[in-house]
Amino acid sequence: MNRPLLQVKELSKHFGGLKAMDNVDFELFPEEILGILGPNGAGKTVCFNLICGVYKPTNGEVILDSQRIDGLLPYEIANLGVGRTFQIVKPFSSLTVLENVLVARGITRYNSLSKIWSIWQSSTEKNAALRILEHVGLADMENRKAGLLPLGYLRRLEIARALVVGSKLILLDESFSGLRSEEIGQLESLIRRIRQDGITVLLIEHNVRVTMGICDRIVVLDHGRKIAEGKPEAIQQNESVIEAYLGRRRGADAA
Amino acid sequence: MNAYVITIATIILINAITVCGLNVIVGYAGQISLGHAAFVGIGAYSAALLSTKAGLSFWAALPIVIAICGFIGLLLGLPSLRVKDDFLAITTIGINFIVEAIFLYIPFFGGALGIGGIPRIMLFGMKVKGLVFFELCLVFLLLVLLICWWFTRSWAGLASFAVREEESAASSMGISPMRFKLLAFVIGTAIAGLGGALYAHYMRFISATDFSFPVSISLLSMLVLGGMGNLWAPLVGAVILGSLPEIFRPLVDYRILFYTVLLLLMIRFQPAGLLGEDSFARHVFSSILPGGKK
Questions:
Q1: Selection from B243, B208, B227, B214 nearest residue B278 by Cα
Q2: Who contacts A227 (Cβ-Cβ below 8 Å, separation ≥6)?
Q3: Which residues of B touch A (CB under 8 A)?
Q4: Has residue A252 got a pLDDT over 70?
Q5: CA geometry: angle at A132 spanning A63 and B179, to 5°?
Q6: Could you tell me what percent of chain B has a pLDDT over 70?
Q7: Range of the structural domain that residue A182 is part of
Q8: Which residues in chain A have their CB less than 8 angstroms from residue B172's CB?
């Protein structure tokens, strides 16, 4: 395999005495879908927030394309081509769906004192944003207020925004949670299409079936530590994973 | 029009200009400010001092006044905008009281006597007063509205809306929240400076109490009444809150009662302001006027 796109090295985050993330290592290769799996409170979202710059790691390194990004601020990491979604959706509620995507399209301008004064309502911008909306299955929704959309559409809107920002890598934080089964199917095929376009995906899930079905490799976290890593089939057979996660929830997690 | 009506109308326009500045900060960027009068005061005192002590004309002093207000806005915004919501509200109240106290207790600013003898604005060799002053304010208001309209159409404006709606989502899209909050704050305080300068040259006498905390509240009330984040809200709010006291003058004893009833009706039926989201007036206005809330 070629050079990793993202490397997480000995990453730790302690909140007082709580080790939310403890010495975790993993690598993400270009055009791969890597899943981070783990029960609630395993440290998945903390891991995301460390990569995105929301938290500063207590210890360890995050390397994107051989550049250290730990310690950078969220907007600086976004500027390096890392897009993300949020576990609890964060739409710009009073803006329209189209405007939500246009905010993301502004990423090439927000750092230039001269470019921020130009007008954002141009037809080129609008058409580019419409194409992205079509890609994620939100065509015809562009003039709706984002705050009025149901959850399934909001998840796709977040992916649309992340796609605009994430030219290299997108991070999906439990994009499947709270969705109906047909919505899950649509989202799965969307993520596969994204990968075909050459974008690397790191996703957090605690829906086991989805993670197994869509990911090339899986990293399993429990209590802030990595307890397994490998192909989905290998993870399914892994004793400690079954003990920490699958065993307890088998049968109960039918979604 | 008689002089009385012109005076009321001029004050309304000056307030509308000032509230436009507040709208950039509170309406567009979502950063609550309960100390806007302080920046109007800084504008008014700078204009007054530059014309009485330095002998500059209104026109020569105006760019300096606006720059001073923007710069002080930047200095005070840097620490204040690090806190949010209730804490920002309290911080800006604090700024208001401190600025007022500085005007009141430092002899350089005239102390309790304020500053008098501020010269009239000269335009084409004529003294600007009465109806001409009103028209001058109207031109400035249109200019400010144009700037605000441009702001809502610019990427800077879009970034500010994003920060207002969801700060963490905005920063995941390459927007530095601090940068755009500061930008909005500086634009807002600079516009307040313009309003202050006009106020000083119109009243020709200013004192610290003209820019006290209750004035900030009334400026914010105008904005809330009009509908935060709407381009035309400052004008609508300033017209209503500026003319009501005059209209209700025969009922002077019951004026506060009327305000209270008005406020309660607003909260009950138009919580987003007269021009806010889904308001009665909005449906009518949006078809004929450009620049609704974005």
A1: B227
A2: A220, A221, A240, A241, A244
A3: 150, 153-159, 161-162, 165-166, 168-177, 179-180, 229, 277, 293-294
A4: no
A5: 55
A6: 95
A7: 6-89+166-249
A8: 52, 74-75, 78, 83-84, 86, 162, 165
- From CA B109, how far away is CA B102, in angstroms rounded? 8
Distance between CA atoms of A110 and A166, rounded to whole angstroms? 16
Q: How many domains, chain A?
A: 1
pTM of the model: 0.88
Query: Which of A66-70, B143-147, B239-243 is the most confident on average?
Result: B143-147
Q: Could you tell me if residue A177 is inside a domain?
A: yes
Tokens 């105006």 belong to residue? B62
Nearest to A161 among B153, B173, B177 (CB): B173
At residue A38, the pLDDT reads 84
Helix (H, G, I), strand (E, B) or coil at B218: helix
Number of neighbouring beta carbons within 10 Å of residue A80:
18
Report d(CA B202, CA B120) in Å as an integer.
Answer: 7
Whether A121 is in a domain gets the answer no
> Across-strand partners of B35?
none
Cβ(A202)–Cβ(A172) under 8 Å? yes
- Closest by CA to A165, choosing from A215, A103, A240, A253, is A103
Q: Are B165 and A99 in contact (CB under 8 A)?
A: no
Give the Cβ contact number of residue B66 at 10 Å: 21
Q: Is residue A50 part of a domain?
A: yes
Question: How far is residue B42 CA from its own chain's centroid?
Answer: 12
* Tokens (6 digits) for B93: 């109240």
B79-109 pLDDT tens trace: 888 888 888 989 999 999 999 999 999 888 8
Percent of chain A with pLDDT over 90: 52
Residue A254: inside a domain, yes or no? no
Distance CA A152, CA A169 (A): 22
Under a CB-based contact definition with an 8 Å cutoff, are residues B121 and B203 in contact?
Answer: no
Q: Quick one: residue A104, left, alpha or beta (phi over 0 = left, psi -120 to 50 = alpha)?
A: alpha
Q: Which residues sit opposite A63 in a β-bridge?
A: A7, A68
Predicted confidence band of residue B293 (pLDDT cuts 50, 70, 90): very low
Single-letter code of the amino acid located at B155: W
Q: Which A residues 17-56 touch B at CB under 8 Å?
A: 52, 54
Q: How far apart are CA A69 and CA A50, in angstroms?
A: 10
Nearest to B174 among A78, A118, A121 (CB): A78
Average pLDDT (A8-19) is 90
Q: What is the CATH number of the domain that holds A78?
A: 3.40.50.300
- What's the pLDDT tens digit per position in B247-289? 877 777 776 677 778 777 877 777 777 777 777 776 776 666 6
Q: In the prediction, which pLDDT does A1 show?
A: 54
Count of CB contacts below 8 A, A vs B?
Answer: 103
How close, in Å, is residue B158 to chain A by CA atoms?
A: 6
